[in-house]
Design brief:
about 170 residues, two-stranded parallel sheet, 8 helices, globular, mainly alpha
C-alpha cells in the first residue's frame, strides 16, 4: 500500500492481511457482476472511470489474471459512466487557467444538490475536509455519494438512466 493510498483511504498492509480477501477470485467475481450488469443494460457508475479502471486492471495483472479476464477487459472496456467527465460538461467549474475542470465528488454533489442540500452532504464535506478524524476517502461512503449524484443527474435531465449525457443543460442545479 503506497503512502498516498494510506493517507487517502486509511487502509494499511496489516488491515489487508487481517480483513482482506484474496484478490484473484474477487476480481473474477467483479468481472462476472460487470458482465451481468452489461447484459441487463444496468449502468456501472464510477466517479473517476479512468483511474478506477487503471487501478483494477493493474491489480488484476499483478495477481496473475490474463489480460482478457481482467474485470474491464472487452466487452467491458467501454462500460461505465464517468461522473467526473459528465460533471465536467455540466458543472461549469473552471481550473486556474480558465478551462473546464472535472469536479471532485464533493463539487459534483454540491452542484447537483445546490437547491436543496441534503443532510448527508454536510457530513460528506466535513469528512473530505478532514474534520471528522477519519481518512477523507471511504469506499462505501464514496460509492453512496456517487450513486446519489448519478440518480440526481437523471432527475435533473443531465444524463439518462443508462448514463448517456443529454444535450443542453436541462434541470436546475
Amino acid at each position: 500500500v503506497s503512502a498516498d493510498a494510506l493517507a487517502l483511504h486509511g487502509i494499511h498492509e496489516t488491515f489487508l492481511r487481517q480483513h482482506g480477501l484474496p484478490a484473484k477470485p474477487e476480481l473474477s467475481r467483479l468481472r462476472s457482476v460487470l458482465l451481468a450488469a452489461h447484459a441487463c443494460r444496468v449502468p456501472v457508475v464510477l466517479h473517476h472511470k479512468g483511474a478506477h479502471v487503471a487501478q483494477i486492471t493493474a491489480t488484476a495483472l499483478a495477481h496473475g489474471l490474463p489480460p482478457g479476464h481482467a474485470p474491464f477487459a472487452p466487452p467491458m472496456a467501454s462500460t461505465g459512466v464517468c461522473m467526473m467527465e459528465a460533471g465536467k460538461r455540466r458543472c461549469g467549474l473552471l481550473d486556474a487557467a480558465g478551462r473546464p475542470k472535472m469536479p471532485t465528488r464533493l463539487e459534483l454533489a454540491e452542484t447537483l444538490f445546490r437547491d436543496e442540500p441534503p443532510a448527508w452532504l454536510a457530513e460528506f464535506g466535513r469528512r473530505r475536509a478532514g474534520e471528522l478524524g477519519v481518512p477523507p476517502n471511504e469506499a462505501l461512503g464514496d460509492a453512496t455519494v456517487t450513486a446519489r449524484c448519478f440518480v440526481r443527474g437523471v432527475e435533473l435531465g443531465w444524463w439518462d438512466a443508462e448514463g448517456k449525457l443529454l444535450e443542453g443543460r436541462p434541470g436546475r442545479a
